[in-house]
Structure formats: C-alpha cells, structure tokens
Design brief:
The complex is a heterodimer. Chain A is built from ten helices and 19 strands. By secondary structure, chain A is of the alpha+beta class. In chain A, the strands form four sheets. A six-stranded mixed beta sheet of chain A has the order 6-7-8-3-9-10, with helices on both faces. In chain A, helix 2 packs across helix 3, helix 2 runs parallel beside helix 4 and helix 3 crosses helix 4. The radius of gyration of chain B is 22 Å and the shape is globular. Helices cover 82% and strands 0% of the residues of chain B. Chain B contains 13 helices and no strands. Classes of the chains: A alpha+beta, B mainly alpha. Chain A: This is Sulfate ABC transporter ATP-binding protein. Chain A: Keywords: ATP-binding, Nucleotide-binding. Chain A: It comes from Saccharibacillus sacchari.
C-alpha cells in the first residue's frame, strides 16, 4: 500500500498560486527528494503534508486515510525545519525528549530513547549543551533526533542542509542517508540542490511553478528528462535554438522549431586523431578554457553555436583558438508537440555515411 | 567649551532630579521622624496606600494576561488578516497619545451612572465609576500599551518556528505556550510588569476623573498627595510622596536587575 497519496493539491497565498493541482504517491520506506528552484512550491507541499498549512483543494492520505482535517499534532510526522527551530532554552537532552514528554511517556523510557538517539546521531557527550553552544552540523543532528524521538511514521525535512557549510554538508548527506535507511522511515526532503537530491534520494520529484514536472529515480530523471524544464534543470546544459543545424541531428530535428539541450558530457572535443569515427564529428574552434580542478571546461564554437564540454587532464592539452573536431553524441530535442532524446545518427549508423 | 557643557548637564540633572528629591525628603521629615510616621499612618493615608496597592495588583495581573494575549494575537494571529492587525496595532498605542484625563473621561462617558451600561451594573449592585472597578479600568487603559509593546518585539524576534516544531512533536496550544513561548518571553513580561507597576502607582489624571477622589473610599496615594497640597498640608503630602518615590526607586533597581538577567539568558 502507498504510504502517502496526494490528490489534486492546490494552494494560493493571496494572489500567488503556489501549488497547482499536484498529485503523487509515495511508497512506504522510500526516501523522496522534492527538487526545484526556490519559490516553486516545494516547501508549501511539505508544510501541507505536515498540517502546518491547509490546502485550498485536494486530498492528502496517509495509509489510505484522509488526514486533511488532522492537526499537525495528530499526523504522526517528524518535521526538520530549515533553520532547525531548536528550543533555545532547552538542552540537547530536553530538546530530544520534548516529543516524548508531551506524550507523557514514563521518565525511564524517555531517558532510554533519548540516549539511544544521542548515540545514533553521534551527539554523545553533548546532552547538557544548549543549542547556541553547538555547531551547525550538530544542531542539524539534534533537530533530526528530536523529530525521530516520538517514532513518527513520516519524516519531513525542509532544506535540511541549506545552513551548513559545503564540506560538512557532504558528510551529513551520506550520514543522513544511512541513518534513514537504518531507521527505515518514509522520508521526504526538500532541496534546491540537484547534487543533493541525486545523491540522497531514492526517488526525485522535480517541482517547478507549483507543478510536478517529473517523478522518478535520479538515474531516470537524468537519462530521460520528461520536460524541457527538467532537462535544463538537472545537470548542466547548453540550449541550441536550431537543432537541425547540429551535425548528425538533421533528420531527428526535421520539424521546424525543434530546439535542443545538450549536456557537456554528451559532447566530445579533440584533435582529429582522437576520433575513430571522424564522419560523426564537425569542425569547431576552441573559444575559452577554464581549469576546473580535475578537468578542463572547454567552450567551443561550432558554426554560430557555442557548446560546452569537459576534457580530461590526461589528454593532450588544447589551446584557445585551436581548430578541433567536435562530436555531439546525444541531444535532448524538443518542440511544441513533444520532447525526446536523439542519438547522433552518424554515430549510431556509420553505414549511412558510406552511401 | 566642553567643560561648560559638562557643568551645564550636571546642573540640569541636579535641578531637575536631585534637588526635588532632596526637598521632598526634607519636607517629609519637616516635623521629624514622628511627623513622617504620623503623616503616613493617618487613616486616610493608609487607606489611600491600600487602594493604590490593590489597583496596582489588579492592573498588573490583568495587564499581564491580556497584554500577553494581545501581543500573541497581533503577532501570530494570521486569521485576523493583515489590515485588521495593523489597525489594531496602532490602536494599542492610543493611550500613549491620549491624555489620561481624557481616558478617564471616556470611561465615565461609557460606563458612568447615567449610561445604559452603568445603570445596568448599578442595578445588579456593581458600581463601576466612582468605585474600584472604574479605577482599575482607567489604570488599565493608561498602562495597556506597556506590556504589549514589551512582548511584541520578542515574539517577532523568536518567530513561530519553535512553536510549529512543538506542534509537529505533538504539543497543543497550551503546552506549546507553557514550554516554548513562555520561557522566551518571560523577561519581556517581567520588564513590562515593572513598567506597569511603576506607571499605575503614579497614575493620577485618569484615576482622579473616574474615582471622584472620595476620601477613605476611592482615594489613591497620588490623589491624596494632591489633596494634601490643596489643603496646604505640605509635610503630609511629602510623607506619602516619599513612600511612593522610595517604592519607585526600588522598582527601577529591580528593572535594572531584570535587564541584566535578560542579557544573561
């Protein structure tokens, strides 16, 4: 059975239409990332699931039961706020114990559960500290432990890593993923960071302008973006106005007005000798080179189109102004009717060149 | 030039604050210690001090409760609508702008014995104007913004995140208030209470209009001082005034201490 079902969810804030007729299902035990640009309605959806905001229309079901009318207290959820919202005047121990105390759990049991969570979140030795005496990462762990303490059915996290510096964020992501797997709780988190969503989530829902653009595994979404928005939002990409001019896509992009999105990893650039299939390439000129730590980012001009790609440091270095060969392996094509992924036809079927 | 300013500043300070205080103390003890004791142990003086004490007590408690509630609704009450809240927010400051005498007059006009409401209460045996309830209402009118204005900035600063977190953890309104909101605002409330006590102890105009200044019945310490001065009983007036001033000074010290405590937390 589906754990969470959402049907036709709609929400206005004044004249702003924040969430537009959103429907989705979430399986029990899954970790879902709501990904999208800021102001796209992700947080509003999360807050409606929590009962902190009430929808204008639509239904929310947990385990098949309608929860629209239930207040947040009765929904059996844990919520981790963006800025953690820890109780400032309570120690770490008291913060984590709060939900259990409210439920009038016996003291010994509270103690046991809190110590278990303190252990699990690596906060041992910090029980008597106050939130302002902790680092960002530790606060996040406290917020997490506090939300988990009353054993909720559903864990909701609003931008859980937004306020943490980049290095620790990386660490916390894998930590969170492991922990959620171990606890086995259905979780939904909101993020605007695609790396985070791809790395942490079992399934991603891309949300933009109050609508679900696509739902699927990170790999599916990367490989087969359902809409031009998803294609441009996930990964880097360059937009090509006239896809028909791309070498190898003349037939695929026959329909007038077909545009293309091309990711750097779809493009290969190099000396003519580096390509076994020269027929699938076309000529270009290196415009700019940027050192990106582990590789070169190459901007190359092909006709009137600029493309971006990466080049390994191991290969013979290119210079600005060098004439090079460029091969576009694949492109995400779209026009007003449809969108699809096309392969370079000379690469797929080299025989066609022979004729 | 700079020295001149310093001297001038000290001079103004001395003339405005220290000299009257010294003079008042002198006049209170004009007839010696026994004169002071006598002036404050007159039956009407004891009664007036008791009335002031009772009014201060009732007003502080009521202002505490309704001040907290008003501040909560003005800051958190999204169901009120933004425009209504901003209108209410400005009305809260009305007592600052309106003279207390006018405040007292408004109460007389609203619930005086000649009005429908006043007559109704008189019929069931409760006098409002020229009696204790009217004095409490008048003082409440004057002191109302003090508590609200202390608590509102604190509530705005802490935001409602912690309260929402409390709700998602299963706590309902009262528990959330007691365990989450109250610990954050308590020093603001304490500060507001000190201001309320000080203000209501010294309130004169509104109370004078509403109470009718009936000796041994509705006379408060400040209106008694006024009457003593009118009767050229300066020494007695000085005695009462000294008691009030001493209490206020104590409150000021308490307020400083509260401030320091607030900084610690």
């Amino acid at each position: 059975m589906q754990h969470v079902e959402v049907r036709g969810l709609d929400k206005h804030f004044g004249s702003f239409h924040a969430v537009k007729d959103v429907s989705f299902d979430i399986q029990k035990g899954h970790l879902i990332g709501l990904l999208g640009p800021s102001g796209g309605g992700k947080t509003s959806i999360l807050r409606m699931l929590a009962g902190l905001e009430s929808p204008d229309a639509g239904e929310i079901l947990f385990h098949g039961k309608r929860v629209n009318e239930l207040p947040p207290q009765e929904r059996g959820i844990g919520f981790v706020f963006q800025n953690y919202a820890l109780f400032k005047h309570m120690t770490v121990f008291e913060n984590i114990a709060y939900g259990l105390k409210v439920k009038k759990t016996p003291k010994a049991q509270i103690r046991e559960r809190v110590m278990e969570l303190v252990e699990l979140t690596g906060l041992k030795g910090f029980e008597q500290r106050y939130p302002q005496q902790l680092s960002g990462g530790q606060r996040q762990r406290v917020a997490f432990a506090r939300a988990l303490a009353p054993e909720p059915q559903l864990l909701l996290l609003d931008e859980p890593f937004a306020a943490i510096d980049a290095k620790i964020r990386q660490e916390l992501r894998s930590w969170l993923r492991e922990l959620i797997e171990r606890v086995g709780i259905t979780s939904i988190f909101v993020t605007h960071d695609q790396d985070e969503a791809i790395e942490v989530a079992d399934e991603i829902m891309v949300i933009s302008q109050g609508q679900v653009e696509q739902k699927g595994t990170p790999w599916d979404i990367y490989k087969e973006p359902a809409t031009p928005f998803v294609a441009s939002f996930i990964g880097e990409s360059t937009q090509v106005e006239h896809a028909v001019k791309l070498h190898g896509f003349d037939r695929a992009a026959e329909t007038a007005g077909t545009k293309a999105l091309i990711r750097p990893e779809y493009v290969e650039v190099g000396r003519p000798s580096e390509f076994p299939l020269l027929s699938a390439t076309e000529e270009g000129v290196v415009q700019h080179l940027h050192f990106r730590g582990s590789q070169w980012l190459v901007e190359v001009q092909v006709g009137d189109q600029k493309l971006i790609t990466y080049r390994s440091l191991e290969k013979e270095p290119l210079q600005v102004g060098d004439p090079v060969r460029v091969m576009v392996h694949r492109a995400y094509l779209y026009n007003e009717q449809r969108s699809w992924i096309a392969e370079n036809r000379f690469k797929v079927d080299p025989m066609s060149m022979m004729i | 030039m700079k020295k001149l300013w310093i001297v001038l500043t000290y001079l103004v300070f001395a003339v405005l604050l220290v000299a009257p205080l010294v003079k008042m103390t002198q006049s209170a003890f004009a007839d010696g210690w026994s004169g002071f004791v006598e002036s404050i142990s007159r039956p009407e003086a004891l009664h007036a001090l008791m009335m002031t004490g009772l009014v201060v007590l009732c007003v502080t408690v009521l202002n505490g409760i309704f001040g907290i509630m008003t501040a909560l609704y003005l800051v958190r009450g999204k169901w009120l609508g933004r425009r209504l809240r901003s209108v209410m927010n400005s009305i809260v400051d009305l007592p600052y702008a309106v003279s207390p005498v006018i405040g007292g007059l408004m109460i007389v006009l609203l619930v005086g014995p000649d009005t429908a409401i006043g007559a109704f209460f008189a019929k069931i045996g409760i006098n409002i104007v020229y009696a204790f309830p009217g004095m409490v209402i008048a003082t409440l009118f004057v002191t109302f913004p003090l508590m609200v204005r202390e608590i509102m900035p604190v509530l705005e600063e802490i935001g409602d995140d912690q309260e929402q977190a409390s709700a998602t953890l299963g706590a309902y309104g009262w528990t959330t208030f007691r365990r989450v909101t109250w610990p954050s605002i308590r020093w603001g409330v304490a500060y507001g209470a000190v201001l309320t006590i000080a203000r209501s102890m010294g309130e004169f105009g509104a109370v004078l209009v509403v109470s009718g200044n009936i000796i041994n019945r509705t006379q408060t310490a400040t209106t008694l001082v006024y009457q003593d001065v009118e009767n050229f009983n300066i020494a007695a007036a000085g005695g009462i005034a000294l008691v009030l001033a001493a209490f206020s000074a104590g409150l000021l010290l308490l307020m400083e201490w509260t401030k320091k405590r607030r900084e610690v937390h």
